[in-house]
What does this fold into?
Amino acid sequence: MQTDRLSYIFRARADGEPIQLYFGARIHHRPRYPNLERAEPRKSTPTRPSGEQPELMRCEYASPGRGDYRHPAYQIGQADGSRITGFGYRGYRLLDGKQRLAGLPSTFDDYGDDAQTLVIELYDDLAKASLELSYAVFPHQDVIVRSALFRDDGDADLTIHAAASLQLDLPRADLDLIDLSGAWSRENRLTRARLRPGSQTIDSLRGASSHQHNPFIVLAEPGAGEDSGNVIGCNLIYSGNFRDRIEVDHYGVTRLTTGIDPEGFSWLLEPGQQFQTPEAVLCAGDRGLDGLSRSLGEFYRRHLVNPRFAERPRPVLVNNWEATYFDFDADRLLGIARRARQLGIELFVLDDGWFGHRDDATSSLGDWVADPRKFPDGIGALAKAIHSLGLQFGMWFEPEMASLDSDLYRAHPDWLLGAPGRRLTPQRDQFVLDTGREDVVDHLFDAMSRVIRQTGLDYVKWDMNRSLTETWSAALPPERQPEAAHRCILGVYRLYERLTHAFPEVLFESCASGGGRFDLGMMYYAPQAWVSDDTDAVERMLTQYGTSLGYPQSMMGAHVSDVPNHETGRITPLRTRGDVAVFGDLGYELDVTALDDDQAGEISRQIAWYKAHRELMQFGDLHRLVSPFENDHNTMSWQVVSPDRRHSVVGWYQILNRPNPGHERVRLRGLDPDRQYLVREAGLDAGGGQAGRGDEDSSLALYGDELMNAGLFVPQVFDVFDPEHRSADFASRLFTVDTPDERN
Ligand code: GLA
It folds into this structure.
């Protein structure tokens, strides 16, 4: 298989699993690769009659129990208790394009981007099972998407105990693992460490992809940085329990597997049934992390995100959560909406607390009917009033959950996940619905559809605020209980599928207490996601910077909120909060009715500026220039560039102000070296209109090569210190870099 810049080579064999030969920068196509296949026998290792030594083989999808002591890609239990299998090659199919998978979020090639799908057909005669390994090649983004499909072709049951979506055996171990880990309110912190002998896993057993570990990982050559070096990125299109395992063996081979976490999982296959793994995305290149992120961003936009929204500008929103929490009624909300409209906001989002009798987090989840105390004229009346202001209307749901104090639970106690005789473990006073059940999905679809119709809703924020515990389903027989967690996620996908189909114009934003389910499975249905409950500008620099490694900024909901910040108590300038949030889908999450005139003016200008640069900020190529995870951990900078390289915006941020600092020059990227650019500081709060501080003397025309090689001088922050902000800590600057005589 070849993409524009990569080759992926393996060899199929009739008597065993396919052998991996090469994955990396593109090399010439040949019918055979004897040099890549060459191996010397070793003593003291199992040796098959054919002479093959499994421990020395690099496999496409390693089988268990037959002499390869590394972790296998799959395990299938058979009627006699054996888990030993050996799949041999039967044939292949080569298909133009890329079909979506049924029932799972998956990639596609609706735009005719030259994708092709190779399916390798394998068979195990003894287990009477077939296995298909799929490789969808997307040549222009250097992406290969893999998955596996198992089928029981015999007349006895089989049990799948593990089924990776992808395995990659790399012939080297001198690699760094880069991953995104964190916790609630501090998601996606970037860590980087050299691989060591043995196994390392990045995983989640929480029923969701989790705040703690994101499924996205990078394997990077030690010297690889943002703008150069060989890197491999891998991500899973899945939102439940997952595991990335990276195993370095004693011959210096690195085996990567990714897929559903086998811990606590199994899936029963009855004769004729099949099991499809989620898809995994593999992307590689020699243009560093920057290049990898951009290839992936483009890939998701063209081949994963709902095409209706993939390139559609996202509305500037106001969300009432941090403004009111549960304390609101229709009048208070309308007040916020009116003021928001004056500021230039386009979408009003009604968050938690509008349904049942929910005045705090202890009740009503599951009862998706508006609270008559808060909406005496009905939710339809509020929607109408919001729409007549010229705003779009969005609402919050948490479909997968129920409170014990809810009509839903009282009517259907068996709809909760819960092991017989065991006390349920609450989290945030709520419990998880068994969305693996068809009747639960039907009920949720009807309940949500009713509200969407009543309100002519434009947007849904779909939240999920707790992890799974006591994962046992009243609808499954004992032997299928290990399927429950996966079935729950499949039910979530079914519900998303039905709603996005029934209401194609509704924009979905996913959320799980912030970024607890920020993954590609969600991205397929919900083009944007709430990155973190932590809206503090400093924390957001870290979270959004880390997240940007694996996800495009158009996926990141980014809001300006009040100070002192509700998570950190930190007071940052409004300007900095705006300068961070504009590198995402901008929103406001504060009581806009309480703003003084200065603040309101500043916010109006932020919004006007953002609208003028929206496409660039949401869909432009992102370059990370200065990492807050490196150097002095005190500065950060990034940049977006338009596809035609005529326009760019650079954000520069510092955490603490240091006295008497050295001179700061930030080297830009992605510009045309031979083009002249006008560099201006965009003073969002300076009353300078849409695009400037009004200080024309500070505009500079500079060649792209100078900006990229010598860098842009960033004036010391104290020079612009505005006493009204009381502190020069947490300062930021935004520069527009434009080809003259356009857009200025
Ligand atoms: C979660 C979300 C928040 C908000 C609350 C409402 O924490 O991440 O944005 O919607 O729930 O309860």
In short: The mean pLDDT is 95.
